[in-house]
Amino acid sequence: MKDHSPFRLEELDVDGDVQYSFSLDTGDGFKEELFLTREDEGFEGNGYDWESIALVFLNEIAPELIECLEFDSEADMFCVYSDDYDRILDFADRFTEIVNDDDKLADLFSRAEII
Hints:
about 120 residues; about 35% helix
């Protein structure tokens, strides 16, 4: 399995059903320099801002994953979840690869909109 750090990929028991979450605690300032480039527009690097990047990623790069993923982000946490392990793992692998490439991440972020 690929390293998704600082994101976490976890299996959860939700009322007896298995769900998988891919999340990031946003309080540590991960990629802070990126969000500072659009601070005047209201971006802070919070969970909603990461979700806005993930939505651009899904719409442009991985539209086949849109219907099997759901977001539950908050100010201090980005979170996407699914009951389909293979699909969330595909999202996690591909999204982490983009996040680790500053140019590709900046490109996606340039089209992100405040949620």
